[in-house]
Design a protein that fits this description.
about 0% strand; 18 helices; two-stranded antiparallel ribbon; single chain; mainly alpha
């Protein structure tokens, strides 16, 4: 309830407001869906045209609220508040399953409830809150399968991965990552079957979107048509190590803007950007390798960019380092299940590599941070117990000395 109350208070305080940046894209497509114009972008003065720039899960989420409550930003954000309560419950379940500690699980839920970026994301019309819920839901269902061996749990896991993939395409292989992490626990044969079932369900969830895109764009598009643009921006095309997240970025040469204007159609632009990005890499592959390594602290700690980090960025970085340190401490002393360490390591490697081609922001790391807190919470509990024992031992020693003197 604390998680819900904090987020709801901030949402209601801001009230109805002007949408900015990525919010406008989801809002625009959702309005067209509700207005009977189909899955299109462009509204008002701009003629609507078919789009695959944004995946449908979050767009339909927003559209559902618009259909019931009208064009108001507050209702879907209240939905975010409720979804974060669900994510707290899922974090509790995952932490309890991994460490068998109710106190550690409560700490994990509390970390999720109070982590400022999660709170901020819930107040914005962006995908992170829904993505976190699908990510945690997929993992929780897969872990439940380890206990029950019920195929139904794998179906739920695959459904969550599929819905998440229709927001964040890099989530698609998540079922296989789970299976790899739990291979020794389940036995490799059962793990492979479990991963295959999860991935098949994921593919089935994606299939209507893929079919729609084939019919509309006459091309296989399993994800979104922004992939070429994000890949190009992730190559730092403007100067040495500065990635590009927007065409308004000063690092984008005017000549590039002029060339883009000559390419019509979002799919054609995606292909054009993909080709340009490949040319940037071919010109200096070594530079791209170095750039890729520089993205790691950018993604996970929000530092390492061209500009000096703000005080807020340093705080986020310190909290991130502390969360990882507490997770490692929990893995060492809190007696986790055998597959806990491989699971966290593989998720970190997988998500790092999946986001490496794009310009990175720390909010892209949020789904794995949600899982990380399922380790950090038990780490806090284990550390508190150790400090408590140390303090108790010191108190006993002082008492013994005093008795001896008397």
């Amino acid at each position: 309830m604390v998680a819900f109350a904090i987020r709801l208070a901030l949402v209601l305080h801001a009230g109805e407001r002007v949408l900015v940046d990525d919010e406008t894209g989801y809002d625009n497509i959702a309005l067209n869906v509700v207005g009977g114009h189909g899955y299109r972008v462009g509204y008002g003065d701009t003629p609507p045209h078919p789009t695959a720039a944004r995946g449908p899960t979050y767009v339909f989420y927003v559209a559902a609220f618009y259909a019931v409550f009208g064009h108001h930003v507050v209702p879907p954000l209240v939905g975010h508040c409720l979804l974060d309560v669900l994510s707290c419950i899922l974090a509790y379940y995952i932490a309890l399953r991994l460490f068998r500690s109710a106190r550690g699980a409560l700490m994990a839920a509390a970390l999720y409830a109070l982590y400022p970026p999660f709170i901020f994301n819930a107040t914005q019309l962006i995908t992170e809150t829904v993505t976190n819920a699908t990510f945690l839901g997929a993992l929780a269902a897969f872990l439940r399968f380890v206990d029950t061996r019920r195929t139904g749990d794998l179906l739920v896991s695959g459904l969550c991965v599929g819905l998440g993939t229709l927001i964040k395409p890099p989530m698609a292989p998540l079922g296989a990552v789970f299976a790899l992490a739990l291979g020794r626990t389940l036995g490799w044969g059962r793990a492979i079957r479990a991963g295959a079932i999860t991935c098949v369900v994921t593919a089935l969830v994606l299939s209507p979107w893929i079919i729609r895109n084939q019919l509309v764009f006459h091309e296989f598009i399993p994800g979104v048509t922004l992939v070429g643009y994000t890949f190009w921006g992730g190559t730092a095309p403007g100067n040495a190590m500065h990635t590009v997240g927007s065409m308004a970025d000063p690092a984008v040469p005017d000549s590039v803007r002029a060339q883009v204007e000559q390419v019509h159609g979002e799919l054609e632009r995606s292909h054009w950007f993909m080709e340009q990005g490949m040319q940037v890499i071919k010109r200096d592959p070594g530079r791209y390798v170095i750039l890729s390594f520089l993205k790691i602290p950018q993604l996970w700690l929000n530092v390492g960019f061209d500009e000096m980090p703000s005080t807020r960025s340093w705080i986020v970085a310190i909290v991130g380092v502390a969360a990882f340190a507490l997770a490692i401490y929990a893995l060492r002393v809190a007696q986790p299940v055998a597959f806990a360490a491989p699971l966290l390591l593989l998720l970190w490697i997988f998500w790092t590599l999946a986001n490496m081609p794009a310009p990175v922001l720390i909010r892209y790391a949020m789904p794995v941070y949600a899982v990380l807190f399922c380790f950090s919470g038990p780490g806090i509990d284990a550390l508190a117990k150790r400090l408590g024992r140390a303090d108790g031992g010191a108190t006993t020693e002082r008492t013994t000395r005093m008795r001896g003197v008397s």
